Amino acid sequence: MNDGKKRDEEKRDEEKRDEEKELIKTKGRIKTHTKTHLIVLTLVIVCELIGTHQYKVGPGSIVLLPMLFAVVLGLIITPDVLGKLIKPLRSMVSMEECKLATPLLIIALMPLGVKYGTLVGPAIPMIIKAGPAFILQEFGNLGTIFLALPIALLLGLKREAVGATVSICREPTLGIISEYYGIDSPEGRGILGIYLCGTIFGTIFFGLLGGLAVATGLHPLALAMACGMGSASMMTASSASLATAVPAMKDQILAYAATSNLLTGVTGMYMVLIIGLPLVNKLYDALQPKIQGGSKIQGGSKIQGGKKK
Q1: pLDDT tens digit sequence for 85-101
Q2: Which of the residues 66, 67, 142, 306 could staple to 47 if both were Cys, CB 3.0 to 4.6 A apart?
Q3: How far is Cα 215 from Cα 51, in angstroms, rounded to an integer?
Q4: ∠ CA(272), CA(274), CA(276), 5° rounding?
Q5: DSSP letter at 276?
Q6: Which residues are registered as beta bridge partners of 307?
Q7: Reported pTM
């Protein structure tokens, strides 16, 4: 049964890749590509004209970057929001353009990766001096499980809480949960829900958090490392806000954030697989009966010690 499920998942993944390849082809789709790029260019120009706005809040500050305005405006003009009310807008920004934007986002982030690579290179001696801090920070990510899981259970989630709270729920963790439980399982629905929330609201949330983080009194470089949570867009928003709030350390902040994000992408998957998933399952077994009452609600393929039972 597990082999059959795995083959079905591999088939779905392959079909998704084939669909994305077809989407980004320009042959016969010049009109859709042109509309998508013109819409993006218009958003960029409008948001750059709005500019960066910084508001002091106590010892910290809220930094509103053009990227945040772009995310908000991009959401507003979709067919599911203003498109429902304004028919001409729906003909300009249809679901076809929205689907094309997904694979194009990966391509658009590549120059950003190159830029951060040029920042990391000259900062290598400084990063080596930081030593084990970059690796040990992954244990800090596990700490969120202790906070998030009880809240998820109090909100009424069942096994969905396991997928929703095991990590920040980006692509590597999505792959792990899909492999162990299946994306149509309660755990799969949990992680997919948080993944979508992160995609929609993550950039806005972390952009605001980056500017306010200075109020904690923690060292800016420690905060810069915290910006690298495994998502390029969220890391960019939070580190840019932090760099704006502490302009004297801008280059160091961006270098630390980029390095942290790179290491999180590499080590974070193993941390979730080996420690995070068994931990969240054990905590779920201990907390679920106490918080929600009744008997333990088990998943289809329980994890113990990082292996399927």
Answers
A1: 888 888 888 888 888 88
A2: 66
A3: 23
A4: 40
A5: I
A6: 304
A7: 0.62
